[in-house]
Amino acid sequence: MKHREVQKKEIQKELLEQQMIEKLFARSEDVFTDMETTYGKLCSRLIGRILNQDEEDTRECMNDVYLGVWNTIPPQRPQSLQAYICKIARNVALKKLEYHTSQKRHGTTVSIQEELDACLPPAKNEYDELELAEIMNQFLETLDKESRILFVRRYWYADSVEELAENFGYSKNHISVKLGRIRKKLKKYLEKEGIYV
Amino acid sequence: MDENGKLFRAMTWIDDKYVLEAETEKKHVNKKKIKYLAMAAMIACAILIMGTNSDVQATLKEVFSQTETISFTASTEAKLRDLDFSRLPGNIQMKKVEMESEDFRLYCLSNENDDIIWLFQLSNYTNDGSDQELTVHAEGTITRRGSEYGTYWEIQEGNSFSIMWEQNGETLEISSATSIEEARSIYMSLVSAAE
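YS: structure for the whole thing
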């Protein structure tokens, strides 16, 4: 019964996404309200985490996100609008963060970045972001489901260790240790892939 | 763009399926146990015993046989089952049960000489009911300590990937890669070492 409800919700979500994409193709400005209602919270939470809950910056970024979707669909027709809009949100937030980092602000996300940087051996500049993302896809495939979700929650959605501990039902220490192990695996994986001097 | 945070930025472009999975399952993780209940999850349990006196081994074997049944019985419970200690001989007493988590429980028993036996009950469940392999999820180091209960090994979460202990000069270990068969064989070696 529950499974059916989940399936029904998924179908409804898919239909809603299709409608939004059609509206974007038809240049119907109604879609902004739809996007705000459906993905507003998700995207602003993601941006907020990356920008350490700066409300003003988050609002600014959200406008850029909607504009980014409007300007790229069409010609793009994403398979998943949710993933597409989240990726734009993440990218916009990271650009904003980059600007702030140069002014020494927003320490938390910078430290999350540094955790991952420690996995990247020297000579990393030979690889562009898309190549690295492809290698990350392969690495994620090697992880068990729980580790993969944990890793993506931390390093994609920028969840705090406290949030992860609450959502996964582990202690903060346990989460930190688990993340440390995954990073160690990643470092080994990157080295195995020849990403070093 | 500078090199700092390059990997973090590159993460933006990972496959959509991972982005969606982490968002969808994040909500599920909150209700993980409920979800597993609904899916009639398979439970696998193992009891690993540190016995200090051979006269309790028969009793502990009896307890272990209960867990063997549990291991391959489909269950609607996604947490450790309560074991039945009602058939313990008169000289064996349950002193303490420590609930470390829903996946991990410690039992402290003693015999008439006040010898202490610690039982580690560990569980794992799969969501499709097809995987009968046990992956032991307990993690930590065990520190040897003395207390009013005797000598035991304290488990501290998160410091190590496996559980290790020594008995009769043998070092035994279970880790997250330990299968049910290996866990059984570790158990049997503990029992035979004590006999």
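YS: worth flagging: Chain A has nine helices and no strands.
IM: good catch. Also Chain A touches chain B through 50 residues (CB under 8 Å).
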